[in-house]
Amino acid sequence: MYTPKYVSRSEWLTVRGHAFHVRHWGREGAPKLWMLHGWMDASPTFQFVVDALERDWHIIAPDWRGFGLTAWNSGSYYFRVSGIHC
């Protein structure tokens, strides 16, 4: 079993009435590095990357709605795929 080198800490933020779980690693005053997961993933999956990085980062990884510790939206919502351009 994998043993993390650096332990994360959790924070809950309320955005438009919805509670989001955000995971942090590193020192608050260090340069910030945001890690955003894709579909079917969650913030703890970045642990391997965090452990491989140099130590002087404040890494921030939110759990999107319905993933990790963030709950699904209580009402319905949809994604407009036709409006996404790469």
From TrEMBL:
The lineage of its organism: Bacteria, Pseudomonadati, Pseudomonadota, Betaproteobacteria, Neisseriales. This is Alpha/beta hydrolase family protein. Gene3D superfamilies: alpha/beta hydrolase. It comes from Rivihabitans pingtungensis. It comes from the Bacteria.
